[in-house]
Design a protein that fits this description.
Oligomer: heterodimer
Number of helices of chain B: 13
Order of helices and strands of chain A: HHEEHHHHHHHHHHHH
CATH class of chain B: Mainly Alpha
Structural class of chain A: mainly alpha
InterPro entries (chain B): MetI-like (IPR000515), MetI-like_sf (IPR035906)
Largest interface: A-B, 109 and 111 residues
Subcellular location (chain B): Cell membrane
Helix content of chain B: 55-70%
Number of strands of chain B: 0
Strand order of the largest sheet of chain A: 1-2
Shape of chain A: flat
CATH architecture of the largest domain in chain A: Orthogonal Bundle
Radius of gyration of chain B: 24 Å
Structural class of chain B: mainly alpha
Largest sheet of chain B: none
Number of helices of chain A: 14
Strand content of chain B: under 5%
Strand content of chain A: under 5%
Biased composition (Low complexity) (chain B): 1-11
Region (Disordered) (chain B): 1-32
Membrane topology (chain B): Multi-pass membrane protein
Distance between the termini of chain A: 41 Å
CATH superfamily of chain B: MetI-like
């Protein structure tokens, strides 16, 4: 049996009826194969997205039978109008931006050198890669509890710092209990779980670089550091773009670590936009904040789309 | 819902990092200098290995301490290591039940993902039908929808369908959550299967279903293992949707059981660490066994 392409050119004039029935059959088979995925997508994806969009234009507490339409009121309330919620949203937005800059920066600044080091050794490479990957594999509530245990006032980090003679760096209130160290600490933990993937991507990138390029650089008298900064780093720019994009996306949407480790505390100093939306959706009792929660979710969605568009442009302009 | 994200671009098979090992020469012509460079590299790698393993080390340490020793401070190696904390934690809090719930949800989600999206990937890669590009694009663009944006509508939908708090109520959105990544990976893998295989199978009279099942599916086995891991691990660890969906303690998964422990009146750190260890160990074992697939697949998935 020939492919449809072949039939297009050779068999059409002679056997149009067979061809058409074959095409119809293949199309029907195709729809049959995608049906389960599409049905689930329509229900869990399309329906929920549209529902959320509609809800973002309404006021509802989840219990009354009807929604009250408020147009773009929720969006205005979030951005500036509501005297209680707008300031919370603004400071949460500021923190989210800090996280979106700091986590990708750390992931690149540590992931890249780590990959270079790992690529330069021959023995124990598999061992190191396995250990470096543990944070990614176990990312979840269990590891965040372990971090909380390590970071608490009588936790091991304070203990280790004191024994290393760095007692001034220790935090008597715990690293998560002090309002000025809580957010930086969470950023470090987020970076800790983001570094494995960044490292792995750089590692595959490094291994795809033609060794003759590196040899040429060396023949020209470039040292290791110079080869890295002037040759390897520019070649891996697409990977850097991917690492930055992934981590910005996760920083924008992810709030699980904030929920588990501080729940926004102390005193709201670690509330980010995702967590604020979550609280508006699930922890505001009978107050009609579900529309606000949806509107905030959609604002995040719009920012994610803008980021994706920027990323596509950056990748295209550089390759 | 925490499936590792990918940059929306068709993926290529990645070179195997292990096979592509290329011992790069250390800089400098002098052997002493070369040795020094290598030593520095190992020291730095070892330092980061400590950072990487730090919380696990303390998790294990805490899990083997009793309730008195856990309060006495910062030594890593327990003076009187005990299994009683682990045993006690396992028994006292229906952990067997939570473990079972987690296992059922993870296995069903993974099976559903493999079935649904290998079928869809096959259709997108091999069959020709009107609208397939549009559908493929729709699935991939789901990647950009933040989980929080659909979290509340999802819970309302579960409630409307009468599946709020049930296992199926979690399994269905979990399956859908991995759709973009799974479809991208599998479509690309199926595209790489030589078309002649399908031709000859069809000539031998095999139907479409048969061709899919006995020719194409075995050919993309590595991709299927990768997808299974990329689905199973985040599903096992999932917390946010489970927390807002499950009300009845008898339906809790392990992460919720852990959360429940910590919100009790006086949570003890050794018990929390024991519970955390119980959650983490299966994932770590799975990872160690299938590491090769995981690392390669992830690189392929994210690289694009």
């Amino acid at each position: 049996m020939a492919t449809p392409e072949n039939l297009d050119t050779t068999a059409r004039p002679r056997r149009p009826a067979t061809l058409r029935s074959q095409r119809v059959k293949e199309a029907l088979t195709g729809y049959g194969f995608v049906l389960p995925a599409v049905a689930l997508f329509a229900l869990m994806g399309v329906y929920t997205i549209i529902y959320g969009l509609l809800l973002s234009f309404a006021r509802w507490n989840g219990f009354t039978p009807h929604w009250t339409w408020v147009g773009v009121g929720n969006y205005l309330d979030l951005l500036y109008r509501d005297p209680v919620i707008a300031p919370v949203v603004q400071s949460a937005a500021l923190r989210t931006v800090v996280v979106m800059v700091a986590v990708p920066a750390l992931a690149v600044a540590i992931g890249f050198p780590l990959a270079v080091l790992l690529n330069s050794i021959t023995r124990l490479r598999g061992f190191f890669r396995t250990v470096f990957f543990l944070p990614y594999v176990t990312a979840g509530i269990a590891v965040f509890y372990a971090w909380t245990y390590v970071l608490q006032p009588d936790g091991s980090l304070n203990y280790v710092l004191r024994h290393l003679g760095l007692g001034t760096l220790a935090q008597p209130q715990g690293f998560l209990g002090n309002p000025s160290t809580a957010l930086p600490t969470l950023i470090v933990v987020m970076a800790w779980s983001a570094i494995p993937v960044a490292m792995l991507l750089y590692l595959t990138g490094l291994q795809s670089i033609d060794s003759s390029v590196l040899d040429a650089a060396r023949t020209d008298g470039a040292g290791t550091l110079r080869t890295m900064t002037a040759v390897v780093w520019p070649l891996l720019r697409p990977i850097t773009a991917a690492v930055v994009m992934l981590n910005m996306r996760d920083a924008l949407q992810g709030f699980q670590i904030f929920l588990v480790m501080t729940n926004g505390g102390p005193g709201g100093h670690t509330t980010v936009l995702g967590l604020e939306s979550y609280n508006l959706a699930f922890f505001s009792g009978l107050r009609p904040t579900l529309g606000l929660a949806s509107a905030l979710g959609w604002l995040l969605f719009v920012v994610a789309l803008i980021l994706a568009a920027i990323n596509v442009r950056v990748l295209r302009s550089r390759t | 819902m925490t499936a590792p994200a990918a940059v929306a671009a068709p993926t290529k098979p990645t070179p195997d990092p292990d096979r592509a090992d290329r011992p790069s020469r250390a800089p400098g012509s002098h052997p002493v200098q070369r040795n020094l460079g290598r030593t520095v590299a190992y020291v730095l790698l070892l330092l980061y290995a400590v950072v990487s393993a730090y919380p696990f080390a303390w998790m294990v340490s805490g899990a083997f301490k009793d309730s008195k020793e856990i309060l006495s401070g910062g030594h890593l190696i327990p003076h009187r290591p005990t299994l009683s904390t682990l045993v006690q934690t396992w028994n006292q809090l229906h952990f067997l039940r939570y473990f079972g719930n987690s296992l059922i949800i993870t296995v069903c989600t993974t099976a559903g993902v493999l079935l649904f999206y290998s079928m869809a990937g096959y259709a997108f890669a091999v069959l020709r039908f009107p609208g397939r590009r549009l559908l493929y694009g729709a699935f991939v663009s789901l990647l950009f929808v933040p989980g929080i944006t659909v979290l509340l509508p999802l819970v309302i939908l579960q409630s409307d369908l009468g599946i709020l708090g049930s296992r199926i109520g979690l399994i269905l959105p979990f399956i859908n959550g991995t759709a973009p990544l799974s479809i991208m990976l599998l479509t690309n893998s199926f595209r790489a299967v030589p078309g002649e295989l399908r031709e000859s199978a069809r000539c031998d009279g095999a139907g479409e279903l048969r061709t899919f099942w006995s020719i194409h599916l075995p050919a993309v086995r590595p991709a299927l293992v990768t997808i299974a891991l990329l689905t199973a691990i985040p599903t096992w660890n999932e917390y946010v949707l489970s927390r807002v969906s499950l009300n009845d303690p008898s339906s809790y998964t392990l992460p919720l059981g852990l959360q429940n422990l910590s919100s009790s009146a006086s949570p003890q750190q050794n018990v929390l660490m024991a519970a955390s260890l119980i959650i983490v160990v299966p994932v770590v074992v799975l990872f160690l066994l299938l590491q090769r697939y995981f690392v390669n697949g992830l690189a392929g998935a994210v690289k694009g």
